[in-house]
Amino acid sequence: MEEKIHEKIHWADAKAAQVAADAPQLIATGITPSGPIHLGNMREVMTGDMIYKALLKRGVEAKLVYIADDFDPLRKVYPFLSDEYQKYIGWPVSDIPCPCGKHKSYAEHFLDPFLSAIEELDIHPRIIRTSEAYRFGMFTEQIKEALIHAEDIKKILEDVSGRKLEEGWTPYYPICSSCGTISRAAIISHDIENHTVTYKCPCGHEGVSDYSKGEGKLVWRVDWPMRWSVHGVTVEPFGKDHASPGGSYDTGKIITKEIFGYNAPVPVTYEWISLKGKGEMHSSKGVVLTIRDMLDIVAPEVLRYLIAKTKPDKTIAFDPGMGLLRLIDEYDKAAVAGESREYELSKIASPQTTIPFRHMVTVVQIARTDDAIFDILKRSGYEIVDKDAVLDQANRAKVWLERYAPEDAKFALAESLPEVAANEKPEVKAAVVAYAKIVTDAEWKADVLHNAVYDAAQAAGVTGKEVFTGIYRSFLGADRGPRLGWFLEALGREDTLKRLLEMSL
Questions:
Q1: What pLDDT score was predicted for residue 6?
Q2: Helix, strand, coil % in the chain, rounded to nearest 5
Q3: 451: domain range?
Q4: Which of 66, 63, 69 is nearest to 127 (CA)?
Q5: 79-117: b or e for each residue (b if 16 or more CB lie within 10 Å)?
Q6: pTM, rounded to two decimals
Q7: 373: number of Cβ within 10 Å
Q8: What is the domain count for the chain?
Q9: How many angstroms separate the CA atoms of 73 and 91, rounded?
């Protein structure tokens, strides 16, 4: 019987196939900008973007939005904040002063670099700020319904989550006009016609909140399903914490149906991205690599590839050291093949080079100037099409070396023959000199230079390892270094032979 071969379907296409092709789709992503928006947060917006692009490929009318939850309160003074922010705990992050004084608010301080970064990542959603939506009255009718049906919502939350809510619980938190916090105020009365509630804040203040003017907000478990109905969300990625049994998605899909008359969006649950040696990324704990940090060292295509190649429900353990180099290597191979769906969802029209990142890491440690970088690359046979793209890659390599590279990836050229090389065993010295003679007229290519080591070892009666060590010692004063073929190719024939032949003196 002939075996049927099934083509592997990419996770984004599989998710896109779950929604109706004959109706407009809206994919929503978002985060609270209460701290640096990190690589883990990027997974949400990039997951949404890839589903969005998969829908467009299927011919489905689709839109992508990013909802900045900037109306959420500041929960605590995080490690990256000064003690003066103690007085702003409980305030909407859209109303708190910027930590650096260059943005209009605390929220924008973290949003601005994030929005700039996703542009580089070829993600172009419509940006919705919840503070503006509330204050422009976009949610007025929905807040009214939530207040009218407060007891019904309370029962849903208790039945589904299994948690008992306090007596007098309310789905709406006013902003206290006295202390400025979004408090767990007691609602004393509700004026339906005027869209106001009278409240008593824990600070002791009694006041009136006009929810048509954004003088308060719905609690998260009600706010989320409310927004689905208002914005018309049909697909939404979210973290695994919201997907737990009895969690906010489970309660939300009932609330949106029974209170707001809307069907919950197709869920896309994603796992966390952990940082090697530090665990899961959390802004509040200072365990972060921002998207900006990553774009300083890798092309945006590589970050897209990281997400594209991994199903959302799989954890990503991210290593910014040698693990990052392996990721770049993997992307480069995918780019050369140019056939995979992962590559298709990753590539964008950013300046490109054909120079392997690992090689550039070697080049920038040899070259003293930009001109020297170009000289080395040309000598290695690389065509320089876009100088700016090459320098961008060189700068990324320098940043990686400075911030994330392990010590054994770094090296410094010795000005003269190191003492450890001068004192090398005679048989090893002879092998290094034999190597120099073998490559004198050879093609100056990395693979040729690498393989010649074994010819020299055989001729001198020593091991290949001893020859490798002898060569590294002659240039670096160390037993190991970068890939030898690439290293010598970058160094050039003249400088290489001059130093190696000093071993005969």
A1: 41
A2: 50, 15, 35
A3: 419-504
A4: 66
A5: eebeeebeebebbbbbbbeeeeeebebbbbbbbebbbeb
A6: 0.89
A7: 24
A8: 1
A9: 5
